[in-house]
Amino acid sequence: MIYITENILNANKYNQELSKEYCGSVLVFEGITREYTDGQKVTKLEYECYEPMAKLMLEEIEKEIFEKWEIHDIIIAHRVGIVDIGETSLVVSVSSAHRQASFEAIQYVINRLKKDVPIWKKEFFENSASWVNS
């Protein structure tokens, strides 16, 4: 399941959606806005995306996950718009029979998302702002 939303992300909700009695592992990764980057105080983040392409690419990544690992299900949720300090911008949740598949799948999703998906992050500092890796 893929979600791109301006709404606050609830990792517990996604965790519960994937919890099944036949899954020995449900892992959740949360990307959270931190207060400092390279010694500069961050005031907020802003994410923009080209949603039609982002959804297609995330669906492609999801398909790859099912081909590469024996997992039961996956949720990739990314927030767009303003994300304040301490709030979640990304949730990747994976359920599988065994934990190793879930760990590897989550790492793969994060790496592919940062490299290939048209979602851009702007960091706002006390006296400046800059786009990250764009």
What can you tell me about this protein's structure?
The chain has 134 residues and is an alpha+beta fold. It is 33% helix and 43% strand. The protein contains three helices and nine strands, in the order βαβββαβββαββ. Strands 3, 4, 6, 8 and 9 form a five-stranded antiparallel beta sheet that branches. Strands 1-5-7-2 form a four-stranded mixed beta sheet, with helices on both faces. The two termini are 26 Å apart. 25% of the residues are buried.
The N- to C-terminal Cα distance equals: 26 Å
Describe the global form: globular
* Strand percentage: 35-45%
**Helical residues, percent:** 25-40%
User: Which class best fits the helix and strand makeup?
Assistant: alpha+beta
Please outline what is shown here:
With 134 residues, the chain is α+β, with helices and mostly antiparallel strands.
List its salient traits.
134 residues; alpha+beta; five-stranded antiparallel sheet; four-stranded mixed sheet; 3 helices; 9 strands; globular
SSE topology:
Elements: E1 2-5, H1 11-18, E2 25-32, E3 36-37, E4 40-49, H2 51-68, E5 71-79, E6 81-84, E7 88-96, H3 99-116, E8 119-125, E9 129-132
Helix pairs in contact: 2-3
